[in-house]
Write a structure and sequence with these properties.
alpha/beta; Aspartate Aminotransferase, domain 2; Aspartate Aminotransferase, domain 1; 7-stranded mixed sheet; 3-stranded antiparallel sheet; about 35% helix; about 20% strand; globular; binds pyridoxal-5'-phosphate
């Protein structure tokens, strides 16, 4: 079997034991004589999977009974529109932390529905930083929610902790650092994440919404089509859900909990990121693009001082079995995405390659 060291930003690598489990069950799940993709979502196999995945999600995130959980389609991008459609009335206000390409899209969609304030905006410095830990923000008293992107996949910045919004509930796009560390769920009204980076394949987006947030923020001044109404999706299936991605998310969550949950993921991510950033910072041959205090432990963009050599670096890396290192076009250079499923050995292999490249081409 040939497996590369995979640094793809998303869809990204999945835990090998999970892929093997899927392979084993692909033709015949639980003696059904059919795959999970070929049987009813309301039947006796998928029903328990749907219950288990929500239970595992609650356990991994530390959600109590005041939270409800759902699986929707359309990616995290669809939520950019659905969130204000559901929770921001025409004369309501929401605050959006503007920290990158994804927040830009979220802000554009929110503006279609209500008033939007930007308490933080790092667009003028190419989004190279996020608010420092402990930063406090005084928001308009009518602000319904404060939206932030906990990890900015493209520019490689990450909130070290939740921004202090003076009690205004947080709505978080956690797509690229979902379940990578413990979070203070009490400060959130909603957490959502596309599965394809940390918890599964593309095709499903996880939404967790607190009951009180739902009750207090539900808009009454517009009609919402049934399938776009979050309430329809929480702890119930209004239509055929993406069964295969949900089934896989369940297996990844089983793996994650077995590994020790988000605390173990945080330790592992910290060690992987430290190894890689140390290599980048060793001298001037490589350089990180995000400000140091804002650096992400999930996505690590970096450049060569000699930018003209970057295409060669990427080509050689690919030939050495290091896949997916080409940076996003917005930043250029290289980006290593080192999500939960990325083993330390892959980061070590990358660091060894970087060291070797410096010695032979420096
Ligand atoms: C932080 C963040 N938000 C949103 C998205 C968009 O996700 P999707 O492609 O699932 O709509 C991405 C995708 O890379 C992302 O990294």
């Amino acid at each position: 079997m040939h497996r590369v060291h995979n640094f793809s930003a998303g869809p990204s690598q999945l835990p090998l034991p999970v892929l093997k489990e899927v392979q084993e069950e692909l033709l015949d799940i639980q003696g059904m004589g059919a795959s999970i993709m070929e049987i009813s979502h309301r039947g006796k196999i998928f029903g328990p999977i749907y219950d288990q995945v929500r239970e595992r999600l609650r356990e991994a995130l530390g959600l109590d009974d005041s939270w409800r959980v759902g699986f929707v389609t359309g990616g995290a991008t669809m939520q950019f529109g659905l969130i204000p459609m559901n929770f921001l009335s025409q004369d309501g206000r929401a605050a959006y932390f503007h920290t990158g390409t994804w927040s830009k899209k979220a802000i554009a969609d929110a503006k279609l529905f209500g008033k939007v304030d930007l308490p933080f905006d790092s667009s003028e410095s190419d989004f190279d930083h996020v608010p420092p830990p402990g930063a406090t923000f005084t928001l308009d008293s009518s602000t319904r929610y404060a939206h932030f992107t906990s990890n900015n996949t493209i520019v490689g910045t990450q909130f070290a902790s939740e921004p202090d919004t003076g009690g205004v509930p947080l709505v978080c796009d956690a797509s690229s650092d979902f379940l990578s560390r413990p979070i203070d769920v009490d400060r959130y009204g909603m957490i959502y994440a596309g599965a394809q980076k940390n918890v599964g394949p593309a095709g499903v987006t996880i939404v967790c919404i607190r009951d009180s947030f739902l009750a207090s923020n539900k808009v009454s001044d517009r009609a919402i089509p049934a399938l776009m109404n979050y309430e329809q999706h929480l702890d119930q299936m209004p239509n055929t859900p993406p069964v295969f991605p949900i089934y896989m998310v369940n297996l990844v969550l089983g793996w994650l909990l077995e590994q020790g949950g988000v605390t173990a993921m945080q330790e592992k991510s910290g060690a992987k990121a430290a190894l890689l950033y140390d290599e980048i910072d060793k001298d001037d041959y490589y350089r990180g693009t995000a400000q140091k205090e804002s650096r992400s432990v999930m996505n690590v963009p970096f450049r060569l001082t000699d930018e003209a050599a970057e295409a060669h670096f990427i080509e050689k890396a690919e030939a050495a079995g290091l896949h997916g290192l080409k940076g996003h076009r917005f930043v250029g250079g290289m980006r290593a995405s080192i999500y939960n499923a990325c083993p330390m050995e892959s980061v070590q292999a990358l660091v060894d390659f970087m060291d070797e490249y410096r010695r032979t081409h420096g």
